[in-house]
Description:
- With 304 residues, the protein is mostly beta strands.
- It is 0% helix and 49% strand.
- The mean pLDDT is 87.
Amino acid sequence: MRRLREDGTDLWATDIDDAWPLLNALFYIAPARLGGVVLAYLAEEMVPSTDGAKSERELIASAARIDGEGAIAWKTRVSAPGNSTHAGRLVALPHDKFMVIGVQWPTFGPRERYSVSAWLVDSDGTLLGETNVYPRLGHYFLALGATAAPDGAVLITGYLNDYHGTSATPLMINDAETWETDGFIMKLDRWGNFEWMRLFGDPGLGSDALWTVVASPDGRITATGLLDGETGTIVHNWIVRTDFWGRTCGMRLGVCADMAWQDCEDGNPCTVNWCDPDAGCTHPPLPDGSPCGEGLTCQGAVCK
Length: 304
């Protein structure tokens, strides 16, 4: 990692020596309030195989903070050892916290499922919590984009594969006739609790994906990606615009059409701020045990 002067010469250079050494390995950065940047990346670790015959590569989602002088202030491995992991995006949140978004997958097997994972890290590199959103068996998430929502939460985009075949390693083969892929928008609150998810795309087999997402101050969401209605057809550029609750103009908005996200904000971290097209603002409670603060959890919709 390098910081450049105005003339393009190096001010400093820092090596992340445990990063996965692959040309297409990606790094994601966000500015840190204390100076420098926070970095999300895949760390590589070689471990003995179960039979002891050889070492195997494990990829671990990790975060690091590089200060303004190029020194590594801290490193944190956020996913558990032994999990192959795709590190997605990094989102800076209020109160100097960061959410690392990725995907974890288990040992390959028929009809396995890959979860969307979110790891909350504070400015000192302490891992505060982990969220896993599991699809049903045979579904595979890939998180491609993430951004902060105006209420301090996180919006995630990507695609969800529905695999209809029986291969033990479905992601390693190309049998498009057994795949259906839809783009998704998912919302997690600032502590990583799941709030809602919606799927977008043409029905039937095809590869639809949402790659990037932004949110306006009033809460409206815009995501872009690629739309392939049926496998083998022309791929189209794709823009999806929704309200704060993931509804497009083609959906029934009801009373929510005139509601701003602030109208449904109740200030309780143990409820979801939702808008029902008929009832208006509702506040369903989060499950007991959901994180709502450092060392605090929800109990009966009360943070304590």
